[in-house]
């Protein structure tokens, strides 16, 4: 019995010794992050969008099938001619219906569409940003570490070729071959967005590999893989976080632009699709309540990624 207690106490001490330094590092990092008000603001905005993505029905006043004057389906009547002519309807707060940001030309609530579209934007932004970082950062590390060798030349010539690939025509061809789906849009954005990551990380790696601690690791017999990912990569992570945030923000904007041009998955709700609809139906100058909310939502999401990225650069900077 005493032996079991001693063993349990030993395991507890071992667990504490293992995790206590990591918890302390997290606390220090969080303390530095909260020093940046702009980063905290970005985190608050992104948290709101995350909640909208997880449970849109909790925050949206109606479902996406709700129609002004008629309510939720199934409908027991049709819109009258006068009701149709009143659409898009400006903000209404209970008479004749509740729509805090008004409706579009089809009678759907603008606020509900904005909230339900957050999930698609978050998915595309995070997926494209992570995918571009997972490709660009390792290639940049390898290219920089093996600078002025055939490995570096091969990677850089491939980057040069990709820089000559125009984004929009490439995406049009991809969509024509594989169809207009959210996955194909993410792939198209990621394929053309990892290049800046690779070039910047390569430059940082060329500088870092000349540092004394890298030379010491080589003398100690460390493998190239260990040197790249254990000694060099932690020092390029700060700039990688910035590019991750930029790529996520750029992906959100790119998806909205593609939706505005009609190159988007029309079965999914998106802010770009809302802007495309108001443009195609000719209400840009007469229905501000339909135009401004998706544009502001798009701007705030892109800004939140930038705010968090620049704050994370300071938190993860080894020099601090």
Automatic annotation (TrEMBL):
Stated name of the protein: ABC transporter permease
ABC transmembrane type-1 domain location: 118-309
Organism: Halobaculum marinum
SUPFAM superfamilies in UniProt: MetI-like
Cell compartment(s), UniProt: Cell membrane
PROSITE patterns according to UniProt: ABC_TM1 (PS50928)
Membrane topology annotation: Multi-pass membrane protein
Any one cellular-component term (Gene Ontology): plasma membrane
Family: Belongs to the binding-protein-dependent transport system permease family.
Phylogenetic classification of the source organism: Archaea, Methanobacteriati, Methanobacteriota, Stenosarchaea group, Halobacteria
Annotated TM spans: 38-59, 97-116, 123-147, 236-263, 283-310
InterPro entries named among the record's database cross-references: BP-dependent_transpt_permease, MetI-like, MetI-like_sf, OppC_N
Highest rank taxon of the organism: Archaea
Keywords for this protein: Cell membrane, Membrane, Transmembrane, Transmembrane helix, Transport
């Amino acid at each position: 019995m005493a032996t079991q207690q001693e063993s349990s106490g030993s395991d507890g001490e071992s667990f504490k010794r293992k995790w206590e330094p990591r918890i302390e590092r997290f606390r220090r990092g969080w303390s530095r992050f909260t020093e940046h008000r702009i980063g905290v603001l970005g985190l608050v905005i992104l948290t709101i969008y995350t909640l909208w993505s997880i449970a849109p029905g909790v925050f949206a006043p109606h479902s996406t099938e709700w129609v002004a004057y008629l309510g939720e389906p199934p409908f027991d009547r049709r819109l009258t001619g006068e009701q149709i002519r009143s659409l898009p309807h400006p903000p209404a707060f209970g008479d004749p219906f509740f729509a805090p940001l008004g409706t579009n030309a089809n009678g759907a609530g603008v606020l509900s569409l904005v909230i339900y579209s957050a999930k698609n934007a978050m998915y595309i932004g995070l997926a494209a940003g992570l995918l571009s970082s997972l490709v660009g950062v390792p290639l940049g590390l390898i290219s920089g570490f093996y600078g002025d060798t055939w490995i570096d030349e091969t990677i850089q010539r491939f980057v040069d070729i990709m820089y000559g690939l125009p984004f929009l025509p490439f995406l049009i061809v991809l969509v024509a071959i594989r169809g207009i789906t959210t996955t194909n849009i993410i792939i198209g954005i990621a394929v053309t967005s990892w290049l800046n990551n690779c070039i910047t990380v390569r430059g940082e790696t060329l500088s870092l590999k000349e540092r004394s601690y890298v030379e010491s690791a080589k003398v100690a017999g460390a493998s190239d893989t260990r040197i790249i990912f254990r000694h060099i990569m932690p020092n390029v992570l700060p700039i990688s976080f910035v590019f991750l945030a930029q790529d996520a923000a750029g992906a959100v904007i790119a998806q909205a632009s593609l939706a505005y041009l009609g190159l988007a998955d029309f079965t999914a709700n998106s802010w770009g699709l809302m802007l495309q609809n108001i443009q195609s139906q000719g209400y840009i100058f007469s229905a501000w309540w339909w135009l401004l909310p998706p544009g502001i939502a798009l701007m705030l999401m892109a800004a939140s990624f930038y705010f968090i990225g620049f704050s994370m650069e300071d938190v993860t900077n080894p020099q601090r």
